[in-house]
Structure formats: structure tokens, C-alpha cells
């Protein structure tokens, strides 16, 4: 016989742990599966300065241990394991863990996050957290008054370049395509082009991020001519997109073309009654720990109401 729970939370980032705190305090006895990255994306960063409640800032991994401890203290059953398959056809939702056991749940909260896409060059991985970042809003502040580089050509890259231009002395934007091949909307392209301290390098790719212990420069290569150019910078931002961790839900849950889960505006409800989504897996706009935590709270409250309405509480 498979295990049956009131509330199953998939994912252990700020969204999942916040949902767990609220669900546990509401008496829903939540079970939370952590996935392969217990603590989520913040465990791969260093200083977090913008999460309220930590006036001196805090290391990302340490903050996520605080989240975990709080969820545990409230009574969440936290387990190491990966959701590998789901079946959301019936009123009781089925989730398979580690390709073995099936768990039945009255409510499921999906908080599996999104992963930043990387260029996958060695120096980018080695200097990740030491000047290399996939989040301008998170880390731009640390490079106030400095020269920074950003790679990407979509709307998000343009937005982040403009955001950085207000903090950094100069923003060097590396774009693979030529001027007529940029993916971003015309409005965003114009905004970038009209910002005096953004320099765009067309037809260029990143050859190497340079620096022993922190970013000191980026070497770019002109794709057309093969010419190499070294630009001294203190930070290197990668803005080439994110991939929501939503593949296993595809058959049942409505998503946009990029795989972000669609929720009913103003709620965490998905198209399947009793299944809710929170955090970066359903948010391609804000992607911050505090917004993920906020939507985790919404998901737990929505799940609690669902259980009451269905007479399952
Ligand atoms: C380098 C970096 C620095 C950042 N700095 C900041 C910052 O300073 N301030 C800020 O506010 N935000 C920052 N962010 C953004 C922030 O980390 C995210 O917005 C936030 O973590 C999203 O939370 P989440 O709970 O939605 O998902 P995530 O934190 O991505 O967590 C997803 C969780 O789901 C689990 N999971 C995935 N698939 C499965 C599965 N199949 N089964 C079980 N579990 C699964 C993973 O193991 C993980 O625990 C940063 C991000 C990065 C990458």
C-alpha cells in the first residue's frame, strides 16, 4: 500500500520551505522532498544582502539552513529524495519518488525552481560566486562603480544590462549575433542602445573569463574576424535564460512555451485542482528569494483552503 499524505511539497528552496512552515503550522503535516539540491539555488551563492531580516547580510547556504530548521521545528517531515514521475489524473495526486515508491497526496505544492543556463566554459564555473553570476538584481550591488560584463541578447539580458548600468561605471554587453539578429524586443534594444554607459560588442562570444580567485577581465572573440579582445571587468553576468524544473509535470500541468507553470493570477492554483505551484518554477519575472518565499506562503494557504473545501482537512 502506498503512503498517503495531506500535503506533499516538492523542492527545498525558499518557496518549498516557506510553504512547509505555513502548512505545518496549519496542521497539514506536510512531507517535503528536497531534490538533488537541498536548500535550492541560494546554496550556490555567497552573500545575500537583500533578504529582509538579515541587516548584516548572510551567506546563502547558511540562510537556507535557517529555513530548513524552521520548517523542521514546525513539524515538517523533510526527506532527501527526488520526485521522478507524477500522475495527476485522479482526485488523489500520485507522486513517485526516486523511481520507486509512490506517494498519494491530497494536495501537492510544486516548488522545484528554475536553473540558470550557463555558457559551460571552465573559467565561468570556477569563478562562479567570485564575480561570475547569473543574477544581476542579486549581485549587481556588489560591483557599484566598477566595470562589468553581461552576456545575452534577450529581453532579460537587456533589462539586466540597464539595471546594471545604474550601478556600474560601464557595462560591456556581449552579443553573439549582429545588430539585426538580436532576440530582444525593439523597445528593449533601444533602451540598451540609448544608455550611454552600455557598450555592445556585436558578433562576439566569450572566449574566457579571466582571474585566479576573482573575475579580473573577460576575453571575447569576434565570430566574424576571429579577433580576440580583453576587457578588464570585476564581474561577469550570464543572462542567457533559465530552465524551469518542470519536465515531469508536463503531461498534466499547463505551462508556457519555456516550461514555466501557469498559475491562476492572484493565486498559486494550477489547472489541476489540489496542485499548486510556487517560486521560480512559475515566475519568470522576479526570481528572487523573497518573492519565492511569498508565493510559497500563498501555496500553503491555497492548499489549506482546498483541503477544507473538499472536506479533507
Ligand atoms: C547565483 C545566484 C545568486 C542569487 N542571489 C540571490 C540573492 O542575493 N537574493 C535573492 O533574493 N535571490 C537570489 N537568487 C535567486 C534565488 O536563489 C531564487 O529566486 C530562489 O532560490 C528561488 O526559490 P525556489 O524555492 O523557487 O527554487 P530553488 O531555490 O531553485 O529551489 C528548487 C528546489 O527544488 C528541488 N527540486 C527540483 N526538482 C525536483 C524534483 N524533481 N524533486 C524534488 N525536488 C526537486 C531542488 O533540489 C531545490 O531544492 C540567486 C540565484 C542564483 C543562481
From TrEMBL:
Reaction catalysis annotation: [thioredoxin]-dithiol + NADP(+) = [thioredoxin]-disulfide + NADPH + H(+)
SUPFAM superfamilies, sorted: FAD/NAD(P)-binding domain (SSF51905)
Swiss-Prot/TrEMBL cofactor(s): FAD
Gene Ontology, cellular component aspect: cytoplasm
GO biological process: removal of superoxide radicals
InterPro entries xrefs: FAD/NAD-bd_sf, FAD/NAD-binding_dom, Ferredoxin-NADP_redctase_2, Thioredox_Rdtase
Keywords: FAD, Flavoprotein, Oxidoreductase, Redox-active center
EC number: 1.8.1.9
Classification via Pfam families: Pyr_redox_2
Domain FAD/NAD(P)-binding: 6-296
Signal sequence residues: none
KW Flavoprotein (keyword) present: yes
Magnesium in keyword set: no
GO molecular function: thioredoxin-disulfide reductase (NADPH) activity
UniProt similarity note: Belongs to the class-II pyridine nucleotide-disulfide oxidoreductase family.
Assembly description: Homodimer.
Name under which the protein is recorded: Thioredoxin reductase
Species annotation: Arachidicoccus rhizosphaerae
